[in-house]
Q: What sequence folds into this?
């Protein structure tokens, strides 16, 4: 809302556009410093970064960092936002007063494609030739004066990371804002299009003129792009009173061009590159390269047939090691702090519903969120580091063939890897996948990747039921089981992806291409900034849901209260205090406490839910106690453990809990048959269930938001529940069929 | 005018050059490749193939692009082997 207010005070608006990998964000950071915030464009999952900057004259302006784009003919949500904002047809974002086009100075030709499109819209623009140092190193010389003269836009050379040229840029921005040169930009394209085409384009242009009142110069370029828009993706085709007329007109123009022998299908890229070639011939000089660049030397190893794969495996190993091992230290520390805090609250607050809400609801809820932060921070740090150095593109290059086999593309790898830590950042990371079907398939299988919240369940059940024996003398059976669970998770994910991609997500795929940018030395500030932005999003998105659910769950396990039972237990306590003392009394009081907790849980809403779902989970070998645990898992999966601890009268909290619980589970016998309740088979069935089931409200919420549809969210819940139930059924009933208990 | 021998981009081996002559198949799918600079007359250089043999890295207009062989197979280029 702040933005709107300032608009009325006429604070000017500057937008940054450019191809991906041009250092756009470093320029944005250099201009705005730390004064920026990140949000989403309403209705779409495209990041909107805005910041404030002070001009040399003291005037404040808004800076908007638009997503990376290759062309004004949109092919992805990101590009659609760029197109709509620049043309001023997005209701939520005012059209900018000035555009900074960021170009990679060593790669001008392709960068000029978008740049010249932007210049032709008539918005006052400055060309920022970034990574100027790299260009010089690569022997590229650009004549800025001549470029300014030929394009009609001011050109500034910068090195974003070193803040070189930023002061100059500020001055040029101030000057251009004072005297915008709109109307004088030269259309490069206009000079090389066939005359017959221009007359035909006017027929399309008249239809959209009205929609582009503030950008009258942009009409011609838009008409040209509508002509090439074979699949009618442009937002203009979707407008109610315009779309149909426009479609008819475009089709008639296409056929009349065909009759006059003009090939319209790729006229814009061919003519524009012809114009760019001429422009570059006059302004760019390239010295031939003799020495191998460092980047090329690195690539010879990192994409090598043998070393490339080896390096990839080592790097992924380090990430896994850091997430699952190094992160444990701070995670344990946080758990202990939370426990201490709970203990303190217990002594400060009087016993009763308020104490219970604060300790078991609020503090436990906050704990459930922040205990994941070390993993999330580490994960985002590595991702940001790989993006900043350029290794990410190599990882995609190395892996694409494998991912293609299941119908995904190499860019699905990172989201799936992230999902091993937590599904929420995994789903957020799918935004880099342009193809809609590929992205959807990746989102739908991401929750199958075994996230770290499942790990405590595996560890407990394995410790309790898998014998500590060695297989073939060296392999640990317990370790093998854990490995098996992870392989099951990966196998299920890839299998389901292949199934989806070959059935309803089959579509006309765009060619899968991506740039392999030169390696760069990472810029720590940028890496940490990106990490922080994303962690913040995790905390606000997932954190708030986990926190709220923890409180809902606290309510479900604590209510309804039975006043009769409370009275009965306090009477028992009184008797115990009178009749015994010392160690005996303490034991007796502990037993009463356990009994009360157990009874409370059994008669609570959660207990009723657990009982209600029992008929459905009986065939899987689960009793209603596990049922309660499954219900509780929706807030946080590890709650299965504390639920089982409560119903089996084990001291909750602390290290003693796991050991006590393992013993309790092994000893538990059925009241009717006298046989063990938790057998190896039940444990296996339960582990398979936890690998495949989608028991996470944060995942539901993030999938709903990122797919923009309730339908896909319910589909995901449905297929995963069916898969988990079916697989556990096969394990349990199959096991019984072969004579296992 | 001597006839130019043509081949497909995915048929080039690492280290070979070619010039884009045209495309085959659905035009719409190629539009982005053209916007990225792979228009007729553009010189491309095959730098390497990924460790598993696909995709391939090509250099054009001073930058590197990864492209799958199945997509490169739709691009006709002049044959470097005459």
A:
């Amino acid at each position: 809302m702040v933005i709107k207010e300032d608009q009325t005070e006429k604070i000017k608006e500057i937008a940054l556009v450019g191809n991906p990998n041009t250092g756009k964000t470093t320029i944005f950071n250099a201009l705005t410093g730390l004064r920026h915030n990140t949000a989403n464009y309403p209705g779409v999952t495209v990041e909107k970064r805005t910041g404030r900057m002070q001009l040399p004259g003291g005037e404040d302006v808004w800076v908007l960092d638009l997503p990376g784009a290759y062309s004004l003919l949109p092919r992805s949500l990101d590009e659609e936002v760029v197109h709509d904002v620049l043309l001023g047809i997005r209701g939520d974002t005012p059209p900018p007063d000035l555009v900074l086009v960021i170009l990679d100075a060593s790669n001008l030709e392709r960068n000029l494609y978008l740049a010249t499109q932007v210049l032709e819209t008539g918005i006052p623009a400055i060309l920022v030739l970034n990574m100027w140092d790299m260009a010089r190193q690569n022997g590229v010389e650009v004549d800025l004066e001549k470029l300014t003269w030929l394009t009609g836009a001011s050109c500034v050379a910068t090195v974003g990371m070193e803040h070189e040229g930023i002061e100059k840029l500020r001055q040029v921005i101030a000057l251009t804002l004072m005297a915008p040169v709109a109307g004088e930009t030269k259309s490069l394209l206009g000079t090389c299009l066939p005359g017959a085409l221009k007359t035909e384009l006017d027929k399309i242009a008249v239809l959209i003129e009205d929609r582009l009142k503030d950008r009258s110069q942009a009409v011609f370029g838009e008409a040209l792009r509508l002509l090439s828009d074979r699949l009618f993706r442009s937002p203009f085709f979707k407008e109610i009173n315009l779309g149909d007329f426009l479609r008819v007109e475009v089709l008639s123009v296409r056929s009349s061009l065909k009759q006059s022998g003009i090939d319209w299908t790729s006229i814009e890229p061919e003519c524009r590159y012809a114009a760019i070639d001429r422009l570059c011939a006059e302004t760019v000089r390239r010295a031939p390269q003799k020495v191998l660049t460092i980047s090329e030397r690195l690539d010879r190893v990192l994409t090598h047939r043998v070393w490339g794969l080896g390096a990839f495996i080592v790097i992924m190993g380090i990430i896994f090691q850091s997430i699952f091992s190094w992160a444990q230290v701070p995670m344990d520390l946080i758990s202990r702090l939370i426990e201490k805090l709970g203990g303190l609250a217990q002594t400060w607050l009087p016993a009763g519903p308020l104490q219970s809400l604060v300790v078991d609801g609020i503090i436990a809820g906050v704990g459930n969120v922040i205990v994941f932060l070390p993993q999330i921070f580490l994960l985002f740090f590595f991702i940001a580091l790989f993006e900043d150095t350029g290794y990410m593109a190599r990882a995609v290059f190395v892996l694409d063939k494998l991912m293609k086999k299941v119908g995904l593309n190499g860019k699905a790898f990172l989201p799936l890897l992230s999902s091993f830590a937590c599904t929420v950042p995994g789903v957020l990371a799918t935004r880099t996948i342009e193809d809609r079907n590929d992205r959807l398939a990746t989102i739908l299988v991401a929750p199958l990747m075994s996230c770290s919240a499942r790990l405590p369940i595996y560890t407990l059940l394995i410790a309790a039921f898998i014998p500590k024996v060695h297989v073939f003398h060296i392999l640990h059976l317990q370790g093998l089981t854990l490995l098996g669970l992870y392989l099951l998770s990966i196998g299920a994910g890839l299998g389901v992806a292949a199934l989806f991609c070959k059935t309803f997500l089959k579509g006309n795929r765009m060619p899968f291409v991506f740039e392999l940018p030169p390696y760069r030395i990472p810029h720590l500030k940028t890496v940490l900034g990106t990490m922080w932005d994303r962690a913040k999003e995790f905390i606000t998105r997932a954190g708030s849901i986990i926190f709220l659910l923890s409180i809902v769950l606290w309510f479900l396990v604590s209510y309804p209260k039975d006043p009769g039972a409370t009275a009965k237990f306090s009477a028992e306590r009184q008797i115990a205090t009178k009749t015994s003392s010392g160690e005996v009394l303490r034991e007796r009081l502990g037993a009463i406490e356990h009994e009360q907790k157990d009874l409370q849980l059994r008669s609570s809403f959660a207990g009723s839910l657990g009982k209600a779902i029992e008929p459905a989970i009986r065939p899987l070998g689960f009793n209603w106690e596990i049922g309660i645990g499954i219900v509780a898992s929706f807030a946080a999966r590890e709650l299965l453990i504390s639920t089982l601890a409560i119903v089996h009268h084990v001291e909750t909290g602390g290290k003693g809990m796991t050991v006590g619980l393992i013993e309790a589970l092994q000893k538990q016998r059925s009241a009717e048959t006298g046989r063990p309740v938790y057998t190896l088979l039940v444990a296996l069935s339960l582990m398979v269930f936890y690998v495949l089931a989608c028991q996470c409200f944060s995942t539901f919420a993030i999938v709903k938001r990122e797919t923009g549809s309730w339908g896909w969210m319910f589909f995901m819940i449905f297929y995963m529940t069916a898969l988990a139930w079916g697989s556990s059924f096969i394990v349990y009933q199959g096991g019984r069929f072969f004579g296992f208990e | 005018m001597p006839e130019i021998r043509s081949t497909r981009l995915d048929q080039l081996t690492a280290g070979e050059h070619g010039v884009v002559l045209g495309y085959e198949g659905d035009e719409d799918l190629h539009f982005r490749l053209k916007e990225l600079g792979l228009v007729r007359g553009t010189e491309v250089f095959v730098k390497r193939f990924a460790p598993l043999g696909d995709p391939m890295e090509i250099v054009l207009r001073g930058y590197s692009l990864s492209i799958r062989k199945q997509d490169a197979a739709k691009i006709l280029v002049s044959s470097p082997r005459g």
Notes: Strands of chain B lie at 6-8, 17-23, 43-49, 56-60, 63-67, 75-78.
